Structure to design on (823 residues):
């Protein structure tokens, strides 16, 4: 069902089901619907999923096991001081929940996800897998040239896996669909920033997560439907503070953590959750060489996040300051997964920049299976109160 | 009672003098006018820095020095007090904490601020953030050299071209600007010629671990053997001389059927267990850790840590005929830039070629580049070689994570398991 009659509850029911479904029923059904279809998983933070789509495959966002899955086997692969997403991803693999997945892309995030790509090769030698290293040099003629060639190699890998050629027109068509997806997502984010009481983040989050597991055209319609339906909701505006959440770009928090922050008196008006669908901040050109278009957009117009190098030290963290100002947030919660090198190494730099800009912040750690929310609620509530009283 | 002074061989004394001279060169920057860079061990471009008369300072080595002098624990806590997470790399925190404690070099003089941060980003994510953090402190130019990871188990032409282009268009112009010295490729060629000579002798020494009894310890002794090549001396005449000297010492021990010299001054000849070790050592309790091995008769015949600054034993040599390409290949081939299947292949090969009893992993809390996936590595190497593996956990320079009793217990259990295996018993793992 789609269109103006769809309610927020209808949409959320679909998204919630997909979000909780660790058997990936939607993707399995999609694959079974036509012979020869293939599914390619991708991990956080950024993969050019247009390429997967152009290969005729379903891009499937893999975000670990969340708080609903007990990790039994995965813990045997990792020491106690390593974050949870790789161990729950392995759990998904060894319990055959991903047995229908034909390929996996492990983009550059950190050394843990990087090494997980090698574990995957050892554990699942018959599944095509690719470590995808994006450039850290942002000069178009250096990093851009390198990236175009990496995209060509990704394309060749997908072609070998599917047995079909990917034309420029295929990629351009996929870029067009994902441009629309990104535009609509930006609209949802803007809608939430303007009227956060109508679009709580506990909803927006699962709407985005579901989008990274479904056909992009279906998601585009769903985004339109959600905005139309949410605008009609009769939801009271509360005396909440407006906050942004950063540091949560890879391992995702449990949904209850997001709800707890909201219940503590915070409207979340910006975040870096499941960032893949907002990593490119502008439309990718749909004319000319599509690989160059993807590369140039990445080089010139992608978000600043901890897995990227910031060449100019003077502007390190400024991206976050600007984002806070753009969405009208009154403070930042820098929430990072435990043992997350990128976010935790970045934390002093980003938070110092926030301080310099007079933006209040708090920081805490979580795991995807954190269960005790009372301390989170207390911290977030105290933070909200302090903003109301003293900012 | 203070610990007795470690007994050292002539090559160790020579290296000590080289290191002291380098620290003097760093700390006398104001008087000499020489420029100083900070850079990393993997992907170290020492020959290139020498072309610009730049002195090479390595924060990783400074952290190790602090660890061995028992100073790192205080530095780390200082960094944690100022907002750095307890979860992240202790090299970084030792470095940052040291700054707030006066930033004193091992020669007792303060480290000067670097003139350039040479961010050779090879095989370790933390490097990138470490120098972003230092950049905030020092406000000096930072030259990023991004070395792509060999995710598919090999390098590609695209990766090599990318590195060479960065060298030509970012690194070399940047170093020219910092130093005021024009780049001379023939000077680089000469240094690379020296590097290759030293590398030949290093490889010869490392390969003598195949001899029984082994005249080297490829882990605890190995960190001395790799010192000059991995740090500020690759490409120098001193390094060439050092490796000639080291080779003579190893040759002498082979002729006398001697093992390596322990810090207590005795030759370790009674070698019961031959091990391959994966992962860096612990530095805060280095001698205590080493003693646990030789007291039990365990000699390390090959290790992955001695490959962290280059896999010379697999055939790579710096090539004066292709200088920049050779630097690119060197960076790409550093151990932690290799994917896990390649690391498994290498370690399994070492177990076989060095006729080892098994693989011991020293898993380092600080270092996800090494540590993430090591349990899988152990399982795979055990499966392929049929020889037992073991797993211990320590840290680089955080003394809070060195539990001597735990490490000793696990090692003793492992050696018992090897005995059992020799008597025909089954193989199993000593789990962490």
């Amino acid at each position: 069902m789609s269109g103006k009659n769809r309610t927020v509850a209808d949409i959320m029911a679909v998204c919630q089901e997909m979000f909780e479904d660790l058997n990936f029923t939607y993707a399995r059904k999609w694959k079974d619907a036509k012979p020869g279809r293939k599914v390619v998983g991708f991990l956080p933070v950024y993969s050019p999923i247009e390429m997967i789509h152009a290969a005729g495959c379903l891009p499937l966002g893999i975000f670990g096991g969340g708080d609903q899955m007990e990790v039994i086997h995965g813990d045997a692969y990792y020491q106690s001081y390593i974050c949870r997403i790789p161990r729950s991803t392995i759990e998904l693999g060894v319990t055959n929940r991903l047995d229908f997945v034909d390929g996996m892309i492990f983009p550059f995030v950190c050394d843990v996800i990087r090494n997980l790509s090698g574990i995957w090769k050892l554990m699942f030698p018959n599944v095509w897998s690719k470590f995808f290293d994006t450039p850290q040099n942002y000069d178009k003629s250096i990093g851009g040239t390198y990236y175009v060639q990496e995209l060509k190699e990704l394309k060749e890998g997908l072609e070998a896996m599917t047995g079909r050629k990917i034309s420029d027109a295929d990629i351009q068509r996929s870029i067009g669909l994902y441009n629309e997806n990104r535009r609509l997502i930006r609209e949802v984010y803007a809608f939430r920033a303007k009227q956060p009481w109508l679009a709580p983040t506990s909803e927006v989050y699962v709407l985005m997560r579901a989008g990274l597991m479904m056909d992009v055209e279906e998601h585009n319609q769903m985004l339109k439907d959600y905005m139309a339906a949410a605008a009609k909701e009769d939801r009271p505006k509360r005396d909440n503070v407006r906050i942004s959440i950063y540091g949560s770009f890879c391992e995702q928090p449990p949904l209850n953590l997001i709800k707890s922050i909201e219940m503590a008196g915070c409207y979340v008006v910006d975040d870096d959750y499941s960032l893949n669908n907002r990593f490119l901040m502008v439309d990718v050109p749909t004319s000319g060489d599509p690989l160059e278009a993807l590369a140039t957009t990445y080089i010139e117009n992608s978000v600043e996040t901890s897995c990227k190098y910031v060449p100019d030290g003077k502007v390190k963290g400024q991206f976050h300051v600007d984002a806070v100002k753009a969405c009208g947030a009154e403070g930042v919660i820098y929430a990072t997964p435990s043992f997350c090198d990128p976010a935790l190494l970045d934390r002093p730099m980003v938070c110092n920049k926030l301080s310099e800009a007079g933006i209040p912040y708090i920081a805490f750690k979580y795991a995807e299976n954190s269960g005790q929310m009372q301390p989170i609620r207390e911290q977030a509530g105290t933070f909200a109160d302090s903003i109301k009283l003293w900012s | 009672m203070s610990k007795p002074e470690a007994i050292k061989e002539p090559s160790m004394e020579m290296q000590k003098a080289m290191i002291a001279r380098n620290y003097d060169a760093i700390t006398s920057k104001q008087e000499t006018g020489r420029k100083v860079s900070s850079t990393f061990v993997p992907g170290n471009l020492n020959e290139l820095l020498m072309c610009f008369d730049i002195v090479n300072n390595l924060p990783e080595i400074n952290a190790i020095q602090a660890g061995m002098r028992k100073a790192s624990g205080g530095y780390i806590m200082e960094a944690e007090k100022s907002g750095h997470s307890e979860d992240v790399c202790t090299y970084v925190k030792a470095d940052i904490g040291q700054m707030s404690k006066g930033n004193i070099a091992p020669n007792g003089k303060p480290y000067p601020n670097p003139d350039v941060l040479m961010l050779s980003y090879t095989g370790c994510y933390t490097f990138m953030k470490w120098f972003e953090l230092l950049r905030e402190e020092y406000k000096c130019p930072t030259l990023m050299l991004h070395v792509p990871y060999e995710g598919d188990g090999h390098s590609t032409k695209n990766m090599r071209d990318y590195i060479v282009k960065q060298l030509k268009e970012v690194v070399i112009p940047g170093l020219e600007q910092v130093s005021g010295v024009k780049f001379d490729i023939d000077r680089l060629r000469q240094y690379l010629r020296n590097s290759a000579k030293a590398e030949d002798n290093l490889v010869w020494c490392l390969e003598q671990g195949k001899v029984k009894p082994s005249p080297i310890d490829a882990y605890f002794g190995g960190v001395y053997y790799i010192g000059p090549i991995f740090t500020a001396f690759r490409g120098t005449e001193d390094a060439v001389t050092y490796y000639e000297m080291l080779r003579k010492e190893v040759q002498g021990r082979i002729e006398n059927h001697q093992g390596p010299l322990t810090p207590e001054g005795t030759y370790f000849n009674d070698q019961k267990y031959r091990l391959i070790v994966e992962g860096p050592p612990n530095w805060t309790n280095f001698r205590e850790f080493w003693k646990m091995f030789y007291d039990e008769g365990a000699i390390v015949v090959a290790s992955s840590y001695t490959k962290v600054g280059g896999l010379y034993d697999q055939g790579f040599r710096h090539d004066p005929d292709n200088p920049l390409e050779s630097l690119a290949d060197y960076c790409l081939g550093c151990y932690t830039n290799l994917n896990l299947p390649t690391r498994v292949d290498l370690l399994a090969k070492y177990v076989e070629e060095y006729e080892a009893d098994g693989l011991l992993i020293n898993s380092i809390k600080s270092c996800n580049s090494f540590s993430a996936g090591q349990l899988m590595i152990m399982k795979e190497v055990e499966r392929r070689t049929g020889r037992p593996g073991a797993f211990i956990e320590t840290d680089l320079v955080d003394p809070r994570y060195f539990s001597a009793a735990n490490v000793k217990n696990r090692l003793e259990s492992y050696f018992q398991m090897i005995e059992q295996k020799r008597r025909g018993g089954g193989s199993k793992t000593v789990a962490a």
In short: Chain A touches chain B through 58 residues (CB under 8 Å). The radius of gyration of chain A is 20 Å.
